[in-house]
Amino acid sequence: MTERDDLATAAVAAGDILFEHRGALGLVTLNRPRAMNALTHGMALALEVQLDAWAADAAVESVAIQGASEKAFCAGGDIRALYEAGRPGGEAGRANFQFYADEYRLNAKIKRYPKPYIALMDGVVMGGGVGVSIHGSHRFATERTVFAMPETGIGLFPDVGATWFLPRMEPDPTAAVPGTMGLFCGLTGARLKGQDAATLLDAQALCAADLPKLIEWLCSGPDPATIDRFAQDQSQILALDNCDDWLAEGQAQLASVSEIAVHFSGNSVGEILASLTSSETEWAARQRRTILTKSPLCTEIAFRQIRTGASLSFEECMRLEYRLARFCMTRPDFYEGVRAVIIDKDNAPKWDPPTLDQVDVDLISMAFTPLGAGELEF
């Protein structure tokens, strides 16, 4: 067995990820509730192996993935483990390259999965949790769903396919400058819930109390066309609770969609900040303050990444993210950001460089440079 096989086996043996074959359904449970079901390297590897097995098994007609806790579907990757493995950056950070290669290949596998892949996005869905859900063929959000891509706050960039989905996250298809909502999410790390989350995740609303009913229905083996119809109109398939009340909540960000379209259409981070500064609204002032707390280097990376991703294929987006991940793992901001937010919890990171105007343009270009023989392969 290889080291990667050992990691996958250990994750299953520890119960960090559970696999059940229930009727016609392959059910995945991310089972680290104390860690908000954070995705470890071993869990990602085990999930890929199981997805391959279920893809070849005619008895499994669809796959669903859920979290073990009502608080979180999956709050992200196991950032603490990455911190311990690669600190303080530089050459030590290379220890984390394989994790990102395997995680991104898993995201691509989910995107291209040949059977219905149903994500039950109940609770917190952030970072790596978005990667194992948003790329599935069907997504369901509940009244407890909280979506965010907060990576720039820990010295990273929005990844797990965000280069693809953030530029395409547009609630207003008539917008003059598409992709401003995704740029807003990527630069501020805003937490969205209720109708905001359901809309931006392109997910159907489902009351959390009805999740067991949905799972049991999937176990009965509905054909893909019926699953599609259910995702569009649940009342025609199952008698479920009404979600109108909670859908009406949590719309603070989409209520500001016109402001987002104005302020986040700039051609640089500087233009976005200038636009926010020129506004007299408290909302704009709050977004500006938020952006300025993030890693300046990663804020600039995220801006270019999201704008670039609008014209790339999915696979090209994932290859770009792998270049960026390798770059960030060898820089100090990731380890300083994790220290400040997760380890010491002083929320006072010392970024390198400390301000946006000190970010070297050549350094940004280095992050985007193709890797040649080291490019991510699928």
How would you describe the overall organization of this protein?
- The protein has 378 residues and is α/β, with parallel strands linked by helices.
- Helix content is 46%, strand content 11%.
- It is built from 18 helices and ten strands.
- The strands form two sheets. The protein has a six-stranded mixed beta sheet, sandwiched between helices. A four-stranded mixed beta sheet has the order 4-6-8-9.
- The radius of gyration is 20 Å and the shape is globular.
- The two termini are 21 Å apart.
- The model has no long low-confidence stretch (mean pLDDT 93).
Quick overview of this protein structure:
The chain has about 375 residues and is of the alpha/beta class.
What labels describe this entry?
single chain, 378 residues, alpha/beta, 6-stranded mixed beta sheet, 4-stranded mixed beta sheet, 18 helices, globular
What is the strand and helix layout of this fold?
Layout: H1 3-13, E1 17-22, E2 25-30, H2 41-55, E3 62-67, E4 72-74, H3 79-86, H4 97-111, E5 117-121, E6 124-126, H5 128-131, E7 138-141, E8 146-148, H6 162-165, H7 180-188, E9 192-193, H8 194-200, E10 204-205, H9 211-219, H10 224-232, H11 244-247, H12 257-263, H13 269-278, H14 282-293, H15 296-309, H16 314-329, H17 332-343, H18 361-368
Helix pairs in contact: 1-2, 2-4, 3-17, 4-16, 7-15, 15-16
